[in-house]
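In response to reviewer comment 3 from the previous cycle, which asked for concrete evidence that the modeling workflow produces usable outputs, we include below a single protein chain processed end to end. The sequence was submitted unchanged, and the resulting structure tokens are shown without manual editing.
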Amino acid sequence: MANKVNARGSVYKKSTELKGKGKIEIKGYDFNKKFDISSFLSSLQNTGFQATELYSAIKIFQEMKTEKATIFLGYTSNMVSCGLRETICYLTKNKQIDVLVTTAGGLEEDVIKLLGPYVLGDYNESGKKLRQSGINRTGNLYIPNSRYIKFEKFLTPLLAMLYKRQKETGKIVTTTELCYELGKAVEKLPNREESICYWAYKNKIPLFCPAITDGSIGDVFFFFKQQNPEMKIDMSEEALKLTKIAINAEKTGIIALGGSVPKHAISNANLFREGADYAIYLTTAQEYDGSNAGANPEEAKSWGKIKGDARTAKVVGDCSITFPLLVMGFLYMKE
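The workflow returned the following structure tokens.
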């Protein structure tokens, strides 16, 4: 004879009450009240899901600054392609971060935007049609090919100057020196204050680009080396300089926008000091494929790239949304 099923008992199973000290009730911001930016940002803690994780990231960013941690900001080129360039530029101009690590696109697109704007386009536009018009598409951004022609004209004289120096001194220019010279060259442009490279140069904030040939810079190098085959860039010095900054810091914090080389270069440098003290990841990537981009902070702890007891947060979402909110919270959240 089949056991009698207690359907009501299955549906309404007795539970333990969760009320008590330290328990946070889920409740969103009350827009019926007069809007207050600090209260709104603080309400993220009670909202749940990624809003709560973003709140944790804001608190960690604030603590990094309070504890005078050396903050490494890593960002991929698409962060500069979109309007996040201005947010990164703000942090660099106001010395809110200490070290920048990016990809080739993060350098060149910062400079290219000084030579001509990117414009808003359409994700669904025909790639064939755009190609015929000499328009490159990054997401829903349009970048006319003329921008890269202008960039080649800007960069080639700089490479010629560095090559001349190489022949005279026998010293090969490092990638960080190239980044510094880019910022110095940007100083001559009328709209220089819009540039990340310029403020890194101006404020003596180290700017690293471990994958410097992976972009338009690599294209310019190709054409330049056809005529000057002895021109070289020392990329090994990059690892030495970046790692020494991490080793010599009292405390370190990581803010990684996306994944790629910048995130890993910063994390690996912190391995040499038994890990960073803080870490904030903003990404859409997940860890199921074993990628560095999707790796959670706990994975980095297993490698010793983040300390075992470090405060960490991983906010899953489009950085074009989450990063401005992180910076807004850092600046305006009082609680």
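The mean pLDDT is 94. We consider this sufficient to address the reviewer's concern, and the full set will be provided in the supplementary archive.
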